[in-house]
Amino acid sequence: MEISEIRALIEAVVPDCRISVEGEGCNFSITVVSPAFEGLTTVRRHQKVLGAIQQPLATGALHAISVKAYTPEEWDQRQPSNAAASPPAG
Question: DSSP 3-state assignment of 15?
Fold first, then answer.
């Protein structure tokens, strides 16, 4: 599966998001930053992202997936204080 396909599936479900997808074949690491995650638990955030890619997971087109999901504020707090806190490329 192509990175652009994964990005498109997630962008369709998670509004106003910034996404970083790394990997190849069927193994990917996905970081999503979106205000849509405000008030959601980590589990609910992951369910939202994984729900977007449910079909490729079911067919085996995607296999090993790592998901990190943050609000913009959480993303900024995770960045080193001396570095520009820009979300993943999106």
Answer: coil
